[in-house]
Specification:
The complex is a heterodimer of chains A (139) and B (421). With 139 residues, chain A is mainly beta. Chain A has one domain: Umud Fragment, subunit A (Ribbon). Chain A has 2 helices and 7 strands, in the order ααβββββββ. Chain A starts with 8 loop residues before the first helix and ends with a strand. Chain B is 40% helix and 21% strand. In chain B, the strands form 3 sheets. In chain B, strands 5-6-1-7-8 form a 5-stranded mixed beta sheet. In chain B, strands 9, 10, 11, 12 and 13 form a 5-stranded antiparallel beta sheet that branches. In chain B, a hairpin with a 6-residue loop joins strand 2 and strand 3. In chain B, helix 4 packs antiparallel against helix 5. The termini of chain B are far apart. At the A-B interface, strand 1 and strand 4 of A face helix 4, helix 5 and strand 14 of B. Strand 4 of chain A pairs parallel with strand 14 of chain B, so a sheet runs across the interface.
């Protein structure tokens, strides 16, 4: 029968680090920080959702088919924000210009004249689902 | 003070978050196997669809009124529930999750000047952040908080939050509140209540204490005190590890092939093992079982099971699955069509501090432990069923869920699509 090791692998490792570097302790020994992409991209775990961009109806848009966008419902829509909106039974990403009476939905790209700005007031059946905070694009 | 945060028509509301077109329209969600209605939007309730109505009975009504019907999507509901919990934890010092859609909040010691505003604010925050409408009731006891949260659903003017604390207000509410709807009294007591002439919650509070103790025993006595404003149901924010773990399902079609039944029970066992390992427990006894369809009265009926006792507590995937499959092979009989099966870990102990036998094969145990850990990690990252034992077959539970919505928040290929215009 083999003797059973009494330390698990992680404590064994820290034992080694201490043992080898005993004469010259690394100044970084206690530093356990690393970059966490999720922490950067997801500020509120309760209200953050992912969407995928469908269709290529826009030229020169900063979002392309297949991109993943991060949408945070906790972010208050601000002037000129990009947001996932729900209009006429469909999700679309629009630039939202906030006006006195309501909002003006602009195409995501200023140079695009294929889609006209849509004014929305209290009578429209429309909702801002959430504000786009990041676009993840494959290089 | 205590608060109860209750998600309105939770499963139906989860579906609506991703389908804004269904807002204001009737929506129902069906149980496993699309058997019966387990969640209904207000519009569906108004059509007369009741909780637990079998789907085949309401099919005509559903078609005529264009009711949106969904199979249950527990991956979605679980994730949305987690999001609501995240919001609640930001708002209250302690949260006790009571069910997937209900949580008690302990506000004792919290310095909140305007509790009514706080309740409405919490409801608004949940709605804004998660899309789920939540009713928040605040009152001196858990039982009263539950009643307060029901008021929010009845009266939209309350804007999702209700602080009920003045004795005269509580009395007014209890006088209109049916006793059978009070948390902790329940439908089973209806006859006894009628005999005592108790119709409303208020009538119940007016019973003599000794009558309550004699007729409704300890739980009924606690409810009586709670309704009178004296808190006596403990706040439980530490989840005790479960003493038994059970995973069972009924099948869309009866199973007559032993290999099929084995692969299903193996899949249930795998799900149960994941629960067991998550709470850091070991199984000492396990009971796989299977039963026939009791609604088919003219077919032969059976409830078959085998108790498996382990000499040493175990949380090893392979050990438990192999034992479950052996048990199924032992009790399976060709003459029956099995409609439902499952597995229960009937005796569980904590892994921490568990004394193992001295003469066990340490090396083999180590190897198995590493395999189990590898299965856990793959499952955590890629979801259950990604890696599985051969006996599990395709690892899918044979359930009817023809109308299931995508796993919008838990599977990358299912995330909602959006066009840029």
């Amino acid at each position: 029968m083999q003797p059973h090791p009494i330390v698990d692998s992680s404590s064994f490792e820290s034992l080694l680090v201490g043992a080898i570097k005993a004469g010259f302790p690394s100044p970084a020994e206690d530093v356990r920080e690393k970059l966490d992409l999720v922490k950067l991209l997801v500020r509120h775990s309760a209200s953050t959702f992912f969407f995928q961009i469908d269709g290529v109806s826009m030229v020169d848009a900063d979002m392309d088919e297949g991109d993943i966008i991060i949408v945070d419902r906790a972010v208050e829509p601000y002037n000129d924000c990009k947001a996932v909106c729900y209009i006429d039974g469909e999700y679309t990403v629009k630039r939202v210009e906030i006006t006195g009476e309501g909002a003006l939905l602009l195409p995501c790209n200023e140079h695009n004249d294929k889609f006209k700005p849509i004014p929305v007031g209290p009578d429209n059946d429309f909702l801002i689902w959430g504000v786009v905070t990041w676009v993840i694009k494959k290089a | 003070m205590f608060a109860l945060a209750d998600c309105n028509n939770f499963f139906a509301s989860c579906e609506r978050v991703f389908r804004p077109d269904l807002v204001g329209k009737p929506v129902i969600v069906l149980s496993n196997n699309d058997g019966c209605a387990v969640a209904r939007s207000n519009e569906a309730k108004a059509l007369g669809i009741k909780m637990g109505d079998p789907f085949f009975k309401i099919k005509d009504l559903v078609e005529k009124n264009h009711v949106a019907v969904f199979s249950s999507n527990y991956a979605l509901y679980g994730d949305m529930s987690r999001r609501v919990q995240d919001v609640l934890r930001d708002w209250a010092p302690a949260v006790e999750q009571y069910s997937i859609d209900e949580s008690f909040l302990d506000l004792r010691g919290a310095m909140i000047a305007d509790l009514d505003g706080w309740a409405k604010g919490l409801s608004t925050a949940c709605r804004k952040m998660t899309g789920i409408p939540v009713s928040v009731g605040v009152a001196p006891t858990k039982t009263l908080a539950k009643i307060a949260s029901k008021l929010c659903k009845q009266y939209p003017k309350l804007e999702g939050g209700c602080y009920m604390h003045r004795p005269q207000d509580i009395a007014k509410v209890l006088r209109k509140f049916p006793a059978a709807d009070v948390w902790g009294i329940g439908r089973r007591s209806v006859k006894k209540l009628a005999l005592l002439g108790v119709a409303t919650a208020w009538d119940y509070t007016q019973l003599k204490e000794y009558v309550v103790r004699k007729t409704f025993a300890l739980p009924g006595w606690r409810t009586w005190k709670e309704l009178r404003g004296e808190p006596c149901i403990e706040f439980e924010d530490v989840i005790e590890p479960r003493q038994t773990i059970c995973v069972s399902r009924s099948f869309a079609k009866e199973i007559t092939d032993p290999a099929d039944l084995c692969s299903q029970v193996a899949t249930f066992t795998e799900a149960a093992v994941l629960k067991l390992r998550k709470q850091g427990s070991l199984a000492l006894e396990m009971m796989p079982f299977a039963m026939t369809n009791r609604f088919h009265e003219n077919e032969p009926q059976t409830f078959a099971s085998r108790l498996v006792v382990f000499p040493e507590g175990t949380d090893d995937h392979a050990t438990l699955i192999v034992a479950a499959v052996a048990a199924v092979r032992a009790f399976f009989q060709e003459c029956y069509g099995y409609k439902k099966a499952g597995v229960v870990f009937t005796r569980i102990t904590q892994k921490e501090g568990y004394m193992k036998s001295l003469f066990r094969d340490v090396e083999a145990e180590d190897r198995q432990a590493r395999l189990s850990e590898a299965i856990d990690s793959v499952t955590t990252i890629y979801g259950p069923g990604t890696i599985r034992f051969g006996v599990q077959g395709d690892g899918q539970i044979k359930m009817a869920r023809e109308r299931q919505s995508p796993h919008y928040t838990t599977v990358w290929k299912d995330i909602p699509r959006v066009t840029v215009k």
